Amino acid sequence: MKTKITNGNSVRNATRKWAPLFLGPVVIAFIIGFVWPFIQGIWLSLCKFRLISDAEFIGFGNYIKAFQDVSFRHAFWYTALFAIVSLVLINVLAFAVAYALTQGIQGSNLFRTVFFMPNLIGGIVLGYIWSMIFDGILGRWSTSILLESKFGFWGLIILMCWQQIGYMMIIYIAGLQNVPGEMLEAARIDGATRWQTLFKVTIPNVMPSITICMFLSLTNGFKLFDQNLALTGGQPFVIQPGGTTIKTTEMLALNIYNTFYGSSSSSQGVAQAKAVIFFILVAGLGLAQLGYTRNKEVQQ
Description:
The protein is mainly α. Helices cover 73% and strands 3% of the residues. It is built from twelve helices and four strands. It has helices spanning 2-44, 61-68, 70-101, 108-116, 123-138, 149-177, 181-189, 194-205, 207-223, 226-231, 252-260, 267-294, and strands spanning 47-48, 56-57, 237-239, 245-247. The strands form two sheets. Strands 1-2 form a two-stranded antiparallel sheet. It has a two-stranded antiparallel sheet with strand order 3-4. Helix 3 runs antiparallel to helix 9 (207-223) and helix 11 (252-260) runs antiparallel to helix 12 (267-294).
């Protein structure tokens, strides 16, 4: 017994001794790559600047301008709607595909590869590919994805689903394969139908996978940028009575980008304030979703 205790103490002492050596570089990289830029970003959101070296503190003026920006408010609600619709469609379709591919059908490995491959293509490339596809389809009716807001919205939804479903499918397959076989067998013995087994046994046991997929879908929906830039670029445009131009398919990330490279002398500061608001929004929604769905998980 003394030998075991001694060995345990030596292991703990060795862990304490070498932990800084391994954790130190990670902590330093995290501070340099995230903490310091984040703090600097918050500071710049309170400044008027063209160059960081010329930053002039102006308080919360940039935040006031950001909330007064009609295009930013439009981009917020447009992005929120897009994130909700894409979250539902991606997860429902990905789970359905994963469920079908875990039922022992022939060629399931080939289907998994085919569904996953779109996720390997870059967002900019996907945007241009689907832009040509939609132009070919809508051109028959003498219209374009750049001329109708509804076409732009559903075009982005289709693109996002096509890219993300395969990735989420892999996560759902892993969750479905970990459902205890004895629970499924017990449900069959008790006379449960396929639908009852799915909703009462399978889905509750797959909640950890649902939590991950919903988090990724939600955050990806809000952070979408390159696909939005390549597919629609925010078009079509609408000019408000006051002369303000609203890009009807412009999402939050693209709105921040366009603001930063705007012609106004204070555009960089306003864009930085929008970026801070954007971070708080995405982080808050992501944490709220994680907390809610984790409470639904079954402890095995």
